[in-house]
Structure formats: structure tokens, C-alpha cells
């Protein structure tokens, strides 16, 4: 009778190992979080802007749940305190931080983890190769750019460089 239990024990161990591996994949791999764990972010953009929609898709593929407002972002940027000198085509807010432009989801996650005393992050203008500006229409061109941490005094420092 003991020999008959050996295959069952092996099967249980295999199932347990597979379940542990599946859980680890969701915990370790960014963007593979459960839908219930998605972080809410609000985005103000132009209704006609395709790159804004592509950036939102990038966020949603990387653990965020976006609510978009198609009313432009100039008023939102001003209301949220992001200096116009760091402006881009869309403005977002998450957990009190302002996200201006084509900031990679990876850097937003880092911002939320480190929680610096700052206004938020910005990628001024619209560099090709940044999330949302990386579709086929850009032909694989990648401009170097910096993700800037915008401090409360309006000054910026490089948070992450992309070269």
C-alpha cells in the first residue's frame, strides 16, 4: 500500500512546485501583477493624440489602471503644479505625484517605491523611442532622453537616463 502512495506524493509535489512557480512569476515579473493589484492613475490628454493612447496602453500593460480625460492637459498641469518648462502632451497623477509626458512605467514604479519629496516625474517634449513614441510609425528611431525628478522648487535632476 505504501508503494501506491509514492506516485500520489510525487504528483502533489509537482503540483505544489508548479503553483509556487506561477506565483513567483506574478510577483517577480513587472507588469504581470493580478488585475486587482493595478495602481490607479488619472491621465489628462488631447482626444486626438495617438501617442497618449499608446502611453496609456504601456501603463496598463505594466500594472496600472488608467482613467483618461480627453480635455487636454494644460489646465491639469498648471493645477497640479508641474512647471510648463517640463511640459509634454499629457499629464497624469498617481498617489499625489504628477507624471508629465512619456515617462516609462518602470520609473513610475520606482518613484512610488522610493517616495521622494517631489512634485513628480517628467519627460519633456516627446522623444522618439519613449513609451507611446515607440510604435512602427517611428521606424525604430530612439532619441536619448532623461526622466527628470521635478522638485518642489521647480528644479529638476536626472532620475533615469535612457540612451
Topology as a string of helices (H) and strands (E): HEHEHEEHEEE
Q: Counting H and I runs of at least 4 residues, what is the number of helices? A: 4
Structural class: alpha/beta
Strand order of the largest sheet: 2-1-3-4-5-6-7
The residue fraction in helices comes out at 25-40%
| Main β-sheet description | 7 strands, mixed
Radius of gyration: 21 Å
Multimerization state = single chain
What is the terminal separation in angstroms? Answer: 65 Å
Can you tell me the overall shape? globular
Indicate the proportion of strand residues: 15-25%
Global mean pLDDT: 86
User: Which regions have little confidence, pLDDT < 50, spanning 5+ residues?
Assistant: 13-35
Number of strands: 7
Fold and architecture overview:
A seven-stranded mixed beta sheet has the order 2-1-3-4-5-6-7, with helices on both faces. Residues 13-35 have low confidence and may be disordered. The chain contains four helices and seven strands. It is α/β, with parallel strands linked by helices and 163 residues long. The protein starts with a helix and ends with a strand.
Quick rundown:
The protein is of the alpha/beta class and 163 residues long.
Q: Any key phrases for this structure?
A:
alpha/beta, 7-stranded mixed beta sheet, globular, 163 residues
Amino acid at each position: 500500500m505504501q508503494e501506491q502512495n509514492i506516485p500520489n506524493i510525487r504528483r502533489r509535489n509537482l503540483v505544489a512546485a508548479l503553483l509556487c512557480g506561477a506565483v513567483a512569476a506574478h510577483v517577480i515579473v513587472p507588469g504581470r501583477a493580478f488585475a486587482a493589484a493595478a495602481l490607479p492613475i488619472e491621465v489628462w490628454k488631447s482626444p486626438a493624440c495617438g501617442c497618449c493612447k499608446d502611453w496609456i496602453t504601456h501603463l496598463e500593460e505594466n500594472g496600472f489602471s488608467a482613467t483618461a480625460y480627453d480635455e487636454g492637459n494644460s489646465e491639469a498641469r498648471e493645477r497640479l503644479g508641474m512647471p510648463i518648462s517640463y511640459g509634454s502632451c499629457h499629464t497624469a497623477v498617481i498617489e499625489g505625484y504628477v507624471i508629465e509626458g512619456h515617462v516609462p512605467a518602470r520609473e513610475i514604479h520606482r518613484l512610488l517605491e522610493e517616495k521622494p519629496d517631489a512634485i513628480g516625474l517628467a519627460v519633456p517634449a516627446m522623444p522618439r523611442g519613449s513609451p507611446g513614441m515607440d510604435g512602427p510609425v517611428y521606424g525604430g528611431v530612439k532619441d536619448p532622453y532623461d526622466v527628470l525628478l521635478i522638485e518642489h522648487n521647480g528644479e529638476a535632476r536626472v532620475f533615469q537616463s535612457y540612451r
